[in-house]
Each structure stands twice: as structure tokens, then as C-alpha cells.
Amino acid sequence: MYKRKEFLRVSGGLALGLAFGSVAEACSPSKGSIARLGLQLYSLRDDLPKDPKGVLKQVAAFGYKDVESFEGAEGMFWGMGHKGFKQYMDSLGMQIVSSHCDYKKDFEKKAAEAAEIGMSYLICPWVGPQKTLDDYKKLAEEFNQAGAICKKNGIRFAYHNHDYSFTLQDGQYPQDIFMEQTDKSLVDFEMDIYWVVTAGQDPIAWLKKYNGRFRLCHIKDRKKGVAPTKGEPNLSVIVGTGSIDFKKILAAARTEGMKHYIVEQEAYEKAPIECVKEDAIYLNKLTF
């Protein structure tokens, strides 16, 4: 997610009265594919606040088994409370495995509620480019502290990258600082594959370098024929239509300890709900 410092307000968006047929059967995973495909709900950031239950019902029908939430205007649980959200997820046959959130505000409460409903992760989605490498070192220590709070509650803490941490700064990659100065017993990482590629880096090389540290990933494809540039606008496209070789990368990710595979759609070629539907059809058929 890019610069998610505050929730994007509803603007326009899709009228949710459209009827979409279930594609769950068509997306039934086969051996060697993703057993439980997840969706980052930020993909439907404009539609979700209008009708959370209706949107989530469609997501389930598309063959998603897991969801990763984020903090919108009504918090991580979209006005249902943590127990109400879990109850609704259960009724749809889905599970909330993680959420992006602000770890600097009411984090003890967030960790306790997440643990109470069986979530696995709370995740920092964005810290922004820092002025000095020492600033990244200070953030690594903050991650350790947040990780300790999560561990106390029986869940895990993780950091989700953008391109800036995979871009050289004063001869060093900030991502290396995060990896090396966080306690592996407290902090995991969510690799946003799109942003690693956008930074001109090889996701597989990083997965191998830090085996077992990247436990979640964002699957987000990138427009073909456009060279990565610093500060580029988001060029995400429907998974399977872009330039990223997910068959190869996800196979390596599985070998290197990846556990959660989560779709994130940030830019749209058609209605957002249709984009995530097509993402699910492609990925639930992909073998690797």
C-alpha cells in the first residue's frame, strides 16, 4: 500500500447492487497451488465502507479463504467489533488472518482483540522514507517493542515494505537494517512483491537471503513494458496480465518459508470488485 497514512475517503466507486455469480467452485485449488488465498481489503477501499457485509460476501464467493484488513474510518473490524467480525467471517467460511494498523496507537488493545479472535498478525503498513540510516535503526527497535506486545498476546508482528526500503541509501539497503536489527523471535515481514520489483530488486534473492523471515506476501502484478522508476505512480494490474513471474517467485517463496499469500489490487482497469474476482480466478488455478 502506498502512503496509507490516512484512510482514503469514499469517492464514487462501484454500485454494489450488482449480482455476481459464485466462482468458488471454478477456483477450487489443486495440488501445488495456494491452499488459502487471501485478500487485502484495501483493494476494495472505496466499496467496503458502503456495505461491509455485502462486499465480504462477494469476496467469499470469489474463492478467497482469508482476509487481511486495514484501519478504515470504522477500524479494523468495519463497525462490527472484533467478535462480530469473526462471527461474520465464520458464517462465510473465511478467516481474518491479519490486519495493517497503526502500531503507535492503542496497540495493546489491538493486539489483545486480534488474539481473542484467532488472528495471526498485526502489521505495520508504512513508515515512509527516512532521512538517515539511524532513523531506520530506531524504527527497527520500535518494531521489536511492538513484536514483544504481540508475542505477549500470542500473535505476531510484521512490517510490510514499499520500494524505499529496497533502495540504496548511503550505500545500504534500509531493508537490511530492518532484517538484521529486529529480533526474529518478535518480528516477521510481509513482502510486497510489486514494490520489491519496482525498486529494481529480485524478490527471490531476498527470500533466500533471509530464509524464514518473510512469512506473508502481497501478490500484486505490474504493468508490462514500463521500466521501474523512483516515485512512479502505481502501475498494478490484474494478476496474471502483468510482468511479474508469480509462478517462479511463489514457488521460491514457499521453499523459503512463506505461509500467507495475499492479493492486493491498488490500481484498476475496471471496477475494483471485478479486478479482485479476476485475481482470484487466476491465482486459484495457478500451480507452482
UniProtKB/TrEMBL annotation:
Residues 57-282 form the Xylose isomerase-like TIM barrel domain. It comes from the Bacteria. Keywords: Isomerase. Gene3D superfamilies: Divalent-metal-dependent TIM barrel enzymes. SUPFAM superfamilies: Xylose isomerase-like. One of its GO terms (molecular function) is isomerase activity. This is Sugar phosphate isomerase.
